[in-house]
Write a structure and sequence with these properties.
The two termini are 34 Å apart. The strands form two sheets. Strands 1-2-3-4 form a four-stranded antiparallel β-sheet, covered by helices on one side. The protein has helices at residues 55-77, 83-104, 128-150, 159-171, 177-190, and strands spanning 2-7, 10-16, 20-26, 31-37, 44-48, 109-113, 119-122. The radius of gyration is 27 Å and the shape is rod-shaped. It folds into three domains: 2-50 and 106-143, PH-domain like, CATH 2.30.29.30; 52-104; 151-190, no CATH class. The longest helix is centred in the N-terminal third of the chain and has 23 residues, at 55-77. By secondary structure, the protein is an alpha+beta fold. Helix 1 (55-77) runs antiparallel to helix 2 (83-104) and helix 4 runs antiparallel to helix 5 (177-190).
């Protein structure tokens, strides 16, 4: 499954593979290309609106209005004044900084956290429905990777360790309440060493 997100001046591409997610992240200042193993990601979602980060832009707007107003005033009252180029450069400078600040601020972001690494996506690019579908598939693959890796037990593995693994997976959101209860009951009732979600245990 692939997710392509374009929001000027950024471009993000995500591709889901069997054990990892491929990431391409391009901005005005850098271009990154890397992969993250599902076992390095967590299963927590954090959403960010980012409105507070736009406050800095508001301080630039009055300076642009002031310099642009002085430019218009000077052009009308004294078009041959040496201040015309000064106000023109000042207006262009503050306009450019304001636009740069506007497009550099990342808003409507969603982060996948809880693991060793964090994944950053836009919430609504190309649209919220497709992003939600992509996140659901990604979280499913993350959970399956954790279950496959940490629900493998040998014949001599102590029950206390197995229960501890199950409880840990439940605590970090990799198995549900029902799944956790079912696995522990299965272990306690029949002592079956092959516990898990149809995952054959290896010695």
């Amino acid at each position: 499954m692939e997710l392509i997100q374009n929001k000027f001046p950024s471009r993000k591409i995500f591709k889901l593979y069997e054990t990892k997610v491929y990431v391409f992240d391009k901005t005005l200042t850098e271009e990154l290309e890397y992969s993250i193993d599902y076992l390095e990601l967590g299963n927590k979602l954090v959403r960010k609106k980012g409105m507070k980060s736009r406050i800095g832009q508001l301080f630039l707007i009055p300076y642009f209005i002031l310099t642009f107003g002085l430019l218009i005033h000077t052009v009308i009252t004294d078009p041959n004044s040496n201040m015309v180029p000064f106000w023109l450069l000042g207006s262009g400078f503050f306009l450019g900084i304001s636009l740069l600040a506007h497009f550099s601020v990342k808003t409507n972001l969603i982060y996948i956290t809880g693991g060793d690494k964090t994944l950053e996506l836009f919430q609504n690019k190309p649209d919220t429905v497709y992003v939600s579908k992509f996140l659901t598939e990604l979280q499913t693959r993350i959970r399956k990777s954790y279950q496959k890796e940490y629900l493998k037990f040998g014949n001599s593995t102590p029950d206390e360790f197995r229960i501890g693994q199950i409880e840990w997976l439940h605590r970090i959101g990799m198995i549900s309440d029902e799944e956790s209860k079912m696995l522990i009951e299965k272990l306690e009732n029949n002592g079956n060493t092959y516990i898990g979600f149809n995952i054959k245990n290896e010695s």
